[in-house]
């Protein structure tokens, strides 16, 4: 009996898969921390014979090469991938026989030029599932602007035809297993659902419900900024990632922590955002440990700069380390563990206020308030707090001079990005108020302006 197991990496919005006939298995698009895959294979009592990549990934460092080396499996990539290591190159129509399974490669360009989908078939050729990588997603398709600006339009048309081909050639009941689309910035537009079939996608996927030019225009209009660390991922994956190291980082004492902060190094506090607001080391930055950590720390981090993290426990440090190696941040300069009071070692802590949209409405009723919107452009286009200044979080470090001196209230969609922005502004000496609230509550507080500009000075 053929089964497909899912390994979800919610922090990156990606999924990897293990397909097995009960004795032998293939792995599709594995993440960097391959211990999860090895543990799953051991639990199922199966041998991994092949590791398949749908494409050279732009959003994470692949664990495929190391997994293949550890297991002796064949490492399968699309012909033309231009990698620096030995692998098995496959092209459109090639079939891999693995026990009772067959995997048929289908060239589905769009997300990349050489992108492949793999149709999982029984020995008699009956299609069971299709691993679609960044092609057919759930109610969406993979973005087409990660290769180069010059290729984006061409790849957008390719993406349309690729999804059309899958829908045309595969039975309606074929299960669809994409790699991206669960919050990943590799999705061109938001996805919907956690499972689907080809038949269901024929009804809802824009590449199957819109005419070609309408689909392309819609896709291009929906493309917004993506994390800055993406530029490093494909080169690392083509070169061949080094074996992953998840061992604990060396601990630093309070004196060393102060020295690093004084030298302008990145010191990141992983604590919950309201705890950070209540008291933190001066000039440290708040990236709360959770699903958003890797995306936004990776987005804002200056690649290669020394990075020290602060956590309440060593377990938090290990969790952060696992998240960061997934995007190639392999070396931590060190870690500090303990209460913030102990780590301050007598030095005064900084703090700032926390409120919500109702509190912001009350403040605005009393008089002029400076408000900063840290959301993305696509979010701002749907409206914002009236009179607010819009600077997306990923642009804030380069646009700090645009934020007037004095008190500033900071909001985003949920409070997470606002907490990062607040720590950046606090580092520059601003008096900050963190709006720790969901933006959906702004309308109820009477604050929303549907015609808000995407940029501009704050109302004071």
Strand tally: 22
Extract low-pLDDT stretches: 454-460
Task: List the strand order in the largest sheet.
Answer: 1-2-3-4-5-6
Q: Kindly state the mean pLDDT as a whole number? A: 95
Radius of gyration: 24 Å
Q: What is the general shape? A: globular
Tally of discrete structural domains: 3
How does the major sheet shape up?
Answer: 6 strands, mixed
What distance lies between the first and last C-alpha atoms, to the nearest angstrom? 66 Å
**For this structure, what is the CATH class of the largest domain?**
Alpha Beta
**Oligomer designation:** single chain
Strand fraction equals 15-25%
CATH architecture name of the largest domain:
4-Layer Sandwich
Look at the structure and name the CATH superfamily of the largest domain: Ribonuclease Z/Hydroxyacylglutathione hydrolase-like
Kindly identify the CATH topology of the largest domain. Metallo-beta-lactamase, Chain A
Number of helices: 17
The secondary-structure class comes to alpha/beta
Helix proportion of residues, in percent? 25-40%
């Amino acid at each position: 009996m053929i089964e497909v197991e899912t390994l979800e990496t919610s922090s990156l919005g990606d999924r990897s898969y293990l397909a097995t006939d009960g004795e032998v298995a293939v792995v599709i698009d594995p993440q960097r921390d391959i211990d999860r895959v090895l543990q799953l294979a051991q639990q199922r009592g199966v041998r991994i014979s092949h590791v398949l990549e749908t494409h050279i990934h732009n959003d994470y460092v692949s664990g495929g090469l190391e997994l293949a080396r550890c297991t002796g499996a064949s490492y399968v990539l699309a012909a033309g991938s231009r990698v620096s290591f030995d692998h098995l190159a496959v092209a459109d129509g090639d079939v891999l026989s693995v026990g009772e399974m067959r995997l048929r490669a289908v060239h589905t360009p769009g997300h990349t030029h050489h992108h492949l989908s793999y149709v999982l078939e029984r020995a008699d050729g009956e299609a069971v599932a299709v691993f679609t990588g960044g092609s057919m997603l759930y109610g969406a398709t993979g973005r087409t602007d990660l290769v180069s600006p010059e290729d984006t339009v061409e790849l957008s048309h390719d993406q349309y035809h690729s999804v059309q081909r899958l829908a045309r050639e595969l039975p309606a009941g074929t299960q669809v297993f994409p790699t991206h689309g669960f919050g990943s910035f590799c999705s061109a537009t938001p996805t919907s659902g956690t499972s689907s079939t080809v038949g269901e996608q024929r009804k809802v996927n824009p590449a199957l419900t819109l005419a070609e030019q309408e689909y392309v225009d819609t896709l291009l209009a929906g493309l917004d900024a993506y994390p800055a660390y993406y530029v490093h991922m494909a080169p690392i994956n083509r070169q061949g990632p080094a074996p992953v190291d998840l061992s604990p980082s060396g601990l630093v004492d309070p004196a060393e922590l102060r020295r690093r902060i004084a030298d302008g190094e990145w010191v990141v506090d992983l604590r919950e955002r309201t705890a950070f607001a209540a008291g933190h080391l001066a000039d440290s930055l708040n990236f709360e440990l959770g699903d958003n950590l890797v995306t936004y720390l990776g987005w804002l981090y200056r690649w290669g700069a020394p990075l020290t993290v602060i956590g309440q426990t060593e377990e938090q440090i290990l969790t952060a380390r696992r998240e960061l190696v997934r995007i190639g941040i392999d070396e931590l300069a060190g870690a500090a563990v303990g209460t913030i009071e102990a780590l301050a070692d007598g030095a005064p802590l900084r703090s700032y206020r926390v409120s919500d949209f109702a509190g912001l409405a009350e403040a605005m009723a009393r008089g002029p308030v400076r408000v900063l919107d840290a959301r993305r452009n696509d979010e701002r286009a749907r409206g914002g707090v009236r009179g607010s200044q819009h600077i997306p979080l990923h642009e804030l470090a380069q646009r700090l001079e645009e934020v007037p001196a004095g008190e500033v209230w900071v909001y985003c969609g949920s409070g997470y990005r606002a907490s990062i922005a607040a720590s950046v502004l606090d580092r520059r000496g601003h008096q900050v108020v963190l709006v720790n609230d969901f933006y959906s509550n702004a309308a109820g507080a009477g604050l929303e302006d549907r015609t808000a500009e995407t940029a501009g000075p704050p109302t004071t």
